[in-house]
Design brief:
Elements (H helix, E strand, L loop, with lengths): L4 E5 L3 H13 L3 E5 L2 H10 L4 E5 L7 H10 L8 E5 L4 H10 L3 E4 L4 H15 L7 E4 L2 E4 L4 E4 L2 E3 L3 H12 L4 E2 L1 H9 L8 H14 L8 E4 L3 E4 L5
Parallel strand pairs: 1-2, 1-3, 3-4, 4-5
Antiparallel strand pairs: 6-7, 7-8, 8-9, 10-12, 11-12
């Protein structure tokens, strides 16, 4: 299981303690603050996988924190669930329009919130919701480091494994060679862009062995995508 990093922004100490306990039991790595400004600093220092954000927190409102998280490059795509005692439709709409992905009204059960969080993570980052990633007839066990296509084991080198894992975590997304270099090889890498093409070719050869349809799409002038329609 991949540990998901959660940023909890909640100024009710008792509720924060309860949520930390429940989410740590679910194997989340939880950072918590009651302060909106500190939340932005924490998010910049270590990008969370998901943010639980109370509407009313210290120094900055939850709405303003949400707005600023969406403007910051590091957190622009991080899912945000807003927690609030406000149940009016207008407030819910305002939260969603500001950039929140979901909205949970107090009082709520921790089990319901955990289910909502996992549902959002499954949509956004499948690797954080479980140890097996699937797409079409392709399956990756991230713990055992095994890949199967149509039930048959696929032999991959470490780089091809990381490359495929990144594509499986973002099915349908088109990644440029630069983005793939940053995500798979690391931002400090001095590897040339054409190296990405070489590893994509190796990955294609491995996952399409035996005449199986090609599910890796090449998008001219844009990059590569995991796409069932590519075949």
């Amino acid at each position: 299981m991949v540990r998901a990093k959660m940023l909890l922004v909640e100024d009710d100490a008792a509720l924060a303690e309860l949520l930390i306990w429940h989410f740590q039991r679910e194997d989340f790595d939880v950072a918590q603050t009651p302060d909106g400004e500190e939340a932005l600093i924490l998010a910049q220092e270590s990008t969370p996988d998901i943010v639980l954000l109370d509407w009313m927190v210290e120094n900055l409102s939850g709405i303003e924190v949400c707005r600023r998280l969406r403007r910051m490059p590091e957190t622009a795509n991080v899912p945000i669930i807003m927690l609030t005692a406000r149940g009016e439709e207008e407030d819910r709409v305002r939260g969603l329009e500001t950039g929140a992905d979901d909205y949970v009204t107090k009082p709520f059960s921790p089990r319901e919130l955990i289910a909502r969080v996992n549902a959002v993570l499954r949509r956004v980052r499948p690797a954080l919701a479980g140890e097996v990633l699937t797409f079409a007839d392709l399956e990756m066990d991230t713990v055992a480091h095994k890949v199967r296509r149509a039930g048959q084991l696929v032999a991959l080198g470490p780089t091809e494994f990381r490359l495929l894992r990144h594509l499986l975590e973002h099915p349908g997304w088109v990644f440029s060679r630069e983005r793939l270099l940053d995500s798979v090889w690391g931002q400090d890498s001095e590897i040339e862009l054409r190296t990405v093409d070489v590893h994509i070719r190796r990955l294609r050869k491995a996952v399409n062995a035996g005449g199986l349809p090609d599910i890796i799409r090449t998008v001219r002038s844009a990059g590569y995508s995991l796409d069932a329609d590519a075949a």
